[in-house]
Write a structure and sequence with these properties.
Length: 471
Amino acid sequence: MSSCSVENQNPNHPSQLNPPNLCSKNDLPSNHAVRRRRSSFSKTPGFDFPQIVKPCDFTSLISDEILLQILSNIPEQSHRKSNCAVSKRWLSLQGRLVTSVWVLDWDFLISGRMFFRFPNLTHVDLVHATLVSNSFGALLNHELGSFYIGHDECLHDGHVLVPVDEVDFGLKVLASVYPNLTRLVVVNCSEIGLLSVAEECDILQELVLHHCNDHVLIAIAAFQNLQVLKLVGVIDGLYRSVVSDRGLTILAQGCKRLLKLELQGCEGGYEGVKAVGECCQMLEELTFCDHRMDNGWLSALSYFESLKSLKFVSCKGIDLNRELDEHLGSCPVLQSLHLERCQLRDTQTVRALFVVCQTVEEVVFKNCWGLNDAMFFNASLCRGMKSVSIEGCSRLTTQGLEAVVLSWKELESLKVISCKNIKDDDVTPMLSVLFSDLKDFKWCPGNASCLSTILSSSDMGKRGAKFFKKF
């Protein structure tokens, strides 16, 4: 019987006498021969193994402009982050759609990676990048973030802040790349850094300055279109700087087109607040947060002729001057008064506040310490009250609430939440009639009432009942 020779057989032209498929079982080649045959196939010029075909990227046929329009219609919270992982092209295109970022690493800005990754930014927050945290020490939790502070270091001494000259350099580079910047949040800069931003970013409308002082505010007049300004002088445990009457006067003379102003941890007094009221005639919203104002400053609020909203947050006191009533005026168009986490220590001070704010139509008390019936009675000075919200004020009673609420003939909305001395059993028939006539009414004075309301609006009790029926 003739044998099948694998070595001498041409794979492209098999022999008719000895075709490969006619070999008997005993004549099969050995493993060594098979390996030689495979190697000979790979060396044969006319033989090609099948190639693995990669899937085609059909999006490459779409232009950048059309793909940008498609990506811009995707909801931001659902798939935008996963789109960045598709390809480098999608990563680059997705970066063009981002307009607001919180920078967490200062090197990301200085190295230039931020400019290539996000070329069209209009809102930039540099707070977290400027506050450098250590890997040891105590953990400080704040609304700005969590930071590790060493036992022998303090933020306001500059040990864990990016130096001023480096911040100024970063602002200069940032402004040159993003001339269309409209909002900027920065910590520990000087007037030189602010001037570089003002020269390049003509349309900047909102500015937040942390670790601000009077000297920094010298450059504030260079921002011609600034409408929203927040100055943070002191944050306990983080940093400390001084914004006084001098700084407020500089601010007033330079920012005459302001619509909204927030002063956090700032000092000053009557003269500085008066200057802001006289010069910033378009100002509509004013917020004092943890202020350090001198006594007697409250009477300067009467100079704000366009003020519509006044807010106090985390203030240890409003104004302790005992002679306020003799010099008080009122804000002519004020509509809203908001007090949150404030310490109301004196009835006369609260009366002076409502004398200034007697034109308001909306008042909010939220988690205010010390608010009792006598203090709340001064709110009856506001004859045109339409909306009242009281939350977390444990000293106010049902009788004190009724004495004031019944005097408001135009009241439309009332919300009472988590006030433990306001009880359902103390509600009189006259108060019940008032409640039934309100357009917007929410009544959860005690924690038990709040819990029952929440449970009644859900199926938790029903699901629990079905569960326990099985046993």
